[in-house]
Amino acid sequence: MGRRSSVFHLDVGGAPAGGTAREAAPGRGVGVSASAQRADGAGIVAGVLAPHPPHLIYAENPPQNEPRSQGGWDVLRWGYEALRERIQDVYRPDVLLVHAAHWVTAVGHHVNCEARSKGVSVDPIFPHLFRYHYDFRNDVELAEAIVEEGEVQGLTMGAMRNPHMRVDYATIGALHLVNPAWDIPVVSISANNNPYFYGDASLDEMEKLGQATARAIERTGRRAVICATNSLSHLHWDVEPELPEDMACEHSYNHHQYRWDMKLLDIMREGDGGKLRGFIPEHIAATAAETKSGGLTWMLSALGWPDLPAKVHSYGTVIGTGNAVVEWDTAKVRR
Prior knowledge:
This protein has helices at residues 54-60, 74-91, 140-152, 169-178, 204-220, 255-270, 273-287, 295-303, 331-334, and strands at residues 3-4, 43-49, 95-104, 109-112, 116-122, 131-137, 157-160, 186-191, 223-229, 239-240, 311-318, 321-329. The protein is of the alpha/beta class. It has a single domain (28-334), classed as Protocatechuate 4,5-dioxygenase, Chain B. The strands form four sheets. It has a six-stranded mixed β-sheet, with helices on both faces. The longest helix has 18 residues, at 74-91. The N and C termini lie far apart (56 Å). Residues 1-30 have low confidence and may be disordered.
């Protein structure tokens, strides 16, 4: 007998009608932002799409997470292993930045400006899979610079200075999967776009937030990897198998969702920044994609929507949702 979880699903129709794609901004889709081109090695050295399903942490059995598993979702976890090697051996960043889909703020974009974050993060839907004890450092100087640069862009910004705030599981999940050693300082940013309202995505503010983030990185001289923590297609099952890691039960929610995820990944691999920028809202409308929370647009805007082929390390489903580990190596523009 399956366990019923407190999630919901929504039937999404076929492909949206034509004319929904956004036009590429003038000058976009050519190179990377100025902060990714500094000769001294500072700036944005990579952007990554880093999905955060708690199941991947559960499957890995790290000591920080209380629940124990028999494994599962191996292909996605292999993709993260490849990405970790790149971060450790190639990029060697001073800081990891993450835009978190589950730190939802109703008013404005908030940035964690506490020097240290420590506590237990619990997934409210899957507490039997994710109860993670965290303790990590935040890059306060860069966090405050992002707040300031966002305000210059006309955004409503907030500097979060509550030492008792429990960090959301998307932030913790993505950062663990990218860097389980937790030896690199962090900047985490909230999602002002609510990913659970399935309306038309409004991503304009995320473009500005990405530009503000890039300017703050350049201003502080950081060498940064920026992480968009989103799943792709986001319809999912509402009944869980008795053994959550039973891979016989894991597959795409439907073929429609899978097909649209492949369209998006193909465009990422092609390396046409303008085409990708226009297609993301179509993908959101077609699949109820979690990218509506804005992280992917934020990250690519910070990179300057580059004409840069992405490296797809892995793709897989978690409770039916589509997830991909993807890397944009901005250094390739300078080589």
